[in-house]
Amino acid sequence: MRTMGLDVGSKTVGVALSDELGWTAQGLETIRINEERNVFGFEQLGKIIKEYQVSKIVVGLPKNMNGTIGPRGEASFFFGNELEKLFGLPVVYWDERLTTMAAERVLLEADVSRKKRKKVIDKMAAVMILQGYLDSQK
């Protein structure tokens, strides 16, 4: 059974999966969504959950630097609650402060072009969210 990590934004959701032993996180894909039109990519996430036998979902929780929950954090709670209702899997929220910045730094150090960075940044942030969670479970 695998754990799925998600970096939820207003336009995309970065998706990462653990290996079967729950040691490492790998980026899988970035799903385009549209919050304004209530298009959240749940159908695609359902396919991933089924195909990879996901047993738990880790949703990045973007807290403010002072630890409070803002509008993006509320959106993450909404997203996670919908996942729980739709798929009946446990959802864990993981503090994702600075993961996107860290992902950007890794991609810059790897000399990835701006155009390519934009395509993979959310997936990379999902990897960092999931890996942080997996490391905390050891």
Automatic annotation (TrEMBL):
The YqgF/RNase H-like domain, residue ranges: 1-103
A single GO BP: rRNA 5'-end processing
GO MF term (any one): hydrolase activity, acting on ester bonds
Cellular component, GO, one term: cytosol
The entry's keywords: Cytoplasm, Hydrolase, Nuclease, Ribosome biogenesis
Cited InterPro entries: RNaseH-like_sf (IPR012337), YqgF (IPR005227), YqgF/RNaseH-like_dom (IPR006641), YqgF/RNaseH-like_dom_sf (IPR037027)
Subcellular location(s) of the protein: Cytoplasm
EC number(s) stated in the UniProt entry for this protein: 3.1.-.-
Keyword tRNA processing: no
Keyword Nuclease assigned: yes
Enzyme class name: hydrolase
Record function comment: Could be a nuclease involved in processing of the 5'-end of pre-16S rRNA.
NCBIfam families given in the database record: RNAse_H_YqgF (TIGR00250)
Similarity section: Belongs to the YqgF HJR family.
Designated name of the protein: Putative pre-16S rRNA nuclease
